[in-house]
Amino acid sequence: MRRINSNTNILSNLINKIISNPKLSQKLDNLKALEFFDEIIGKNIQKYILDTKIFNNKLFIKVKSATVRNELSYQKDKIIKEINSKIGKQIISEIILK
């Protein structure tokens, strides 16, 4: 029984070291931010979004409807605040709609 427990501890330490890597942790935070963005906007608006990505703390959103683009432009500040508050740090500084 001790052997299994020690292997579990070694594995958990290894996972923590991997996750604490700054390059990897930033990418994981970006993935979380994209998930939170999908939660915030909901399924109805999500239908009109073609692509989302984060680059240099900017959230790029490619939208196929001008009406949805206009609606999202009014909610940019609210979306940024919600994503950053859910993650707990400043991940998104700007939203760019295309």
Write a compact overview of the structure shown:
It is built from four helices and three strands.
Commentary on this structure:
- This protein is of the alpha+beta class.
- 65% of the residues lie in helices and 17% in strands.
- It contains 4 helices and 3 strands; from the N terminus they run ααββααβ.
- It has a 3-stranded mixed beta sheet.
- Helix 2 (22-46) crosses helix 4 (76-87).
- The longest helix has 25 residues, at 22-46.
- It is elongated, with a radius of gyration of 18 Å.
- The termini are far apart.
- The model has no long low-confidence stretch (mean pLDDT 89).
List keywords for this structure.
98 residues; alpha+beta; 3-stranded mixed sheet; 3 strands; elongated
Number of helical segments with 4 or more residues = 4
Rounded to the nearest angstrom, the radius of gyration is 18 Å
User: What is the terminal separation in angstroms?
Assistant: 57 Å
State the strand order across the main sheet: 1-2-3
Largest sheet, in brief, is: 3 strands, mixed
Task: Estimate percent helicity.
Answer: 55-70%
Morphology: elongated
Q: Please report which band the strand proportion falls in: under 5%, 5-15%, 15-25%, 25-35%, 35-45% or over 45%.
A: 15-25%
Q: Flag low-confidence runs.
A: none
List the secondary-structure elements in sequence, H or E: HHEEHHE
Task: Give the averaged pLDDT, no decimals.
Answer: 89
Assign the structural class, choosing from mainly alpha, mainly beta, alpha/beta, alpha+beta, or little secondary structure. Answer: alpha+beta
- Number of strand elements: 3
